[in-house]
Design a protein that fits this description.
Elements (H helix, E strand, L loop, with lengths): L1 H10 L4 H8 L13 E9 L9 E10 L2 E2 L5 E4 L10 H4 L12 H12 L3 E4 L2 H14 L9 E3 H8 L13 H8 L9 H21 L5 H4 L3
Parallel strand pairs: 1-5, 5-6
Antiparallel strand pairs: 1-2, 2-3, 2-4
Helix pairs in contact: 6-8, 7-8
């Protein structure tokens, strides 16, 4: 069934970059965790409405076997017609800032080429996933196919193993403080992606010490 769905999508009149992205998932098999490429990413947006708001920037870092390749990080800024001045105090991105900006289509092409079929890590991942999916939808494409791990959900799942017997939503700041991760470049997409990667890796290290580091534990049911 999964292959038939994939094959049906291939037959549609999709652009080459989307077909190349779909091809990444053909015959995809899970590698050992230590040999898996993870992508931590974050979006800065004009707000929290999936339909009305837009992505201003996307930041991402990749890592394999606990080694973050900072030289291969991704930082994209997107041209916008939608702009909300009140959100600037959070992300600091001005409408007419001098950073190089891409069209939304150019940005999503670059993002898909970077993430390939690898596992995505985000904090409160549903929000970032939905914002990216809305970009794809606006350009007549399908949704992200990648598997996701949410650092907030993983934290809550791990409290009985690592932390205290308390389950509640945790901000990225709270997790960073708990795990002694410096809040460098907070509220920039690339800065938050790096913080998320470090939070994830420190959580993996603690799980590993307690012999809970396996795919069944990491991936959502």
């Amino acid at each position: 069934m999964a292959f038939f769905k994939w094959f049906s999508e291939k037959k549609k009149d999709y652009p080459d970059f989307w077909l190349d992205y779909l091809d990444e998932f053909k015959d995809k098999v899970n590698a050992d965790i230590s040999n898996t490429r993870f992508i931590a990413f974050d979006t800065e947006t004009t707000g929290f409405d999936y339909t009305e708001d837009r992505v201003l920037s996307i930041g991402a870092v990749s890592f394999i076997n606990k080694k973050i390749d900072v030289n291969q990080s991704l930082e994209l800024y997107i041209k916008q017609d939608v702009f909300k001045a009140e959100s600037v105090k959070i992300h600091g991105i001005l409408k007419n800032s001098k950073v190089d900006k891409l069209t939304e289509l150019e940005a999503i092409k670059a993002f898909l080429a970077y993430i390939k079929s690898d596992i995505l890590i985000a904090h409160h991942a549903d929000f970032d996933r939905n914002m990216i999916n809305k970009i794809l939808e606006r350009h007549g494409l399908g949704q992200l196919k990648n598997k996701f791990i949410d650092t907030g959900a993983l934290y809550n799942k791990s409290v009985h193993v690592i932390y205290r017997d308390e389950q509640k939503p945790h901000s990225l700041d709270e997790l960073a403080k708990e795990l002694n991760v410096p809040l460098v470049d907070r509220h920039t997409a690339t800065g938050d992606a790096l913080i998320t990667a470090l939070v994830f890796l420190k959580t993996l290290a603690r799980l590993d010490k307690r012999k809970h580091l396996n795919w069944g534990y990491l991936m959502p049911k």
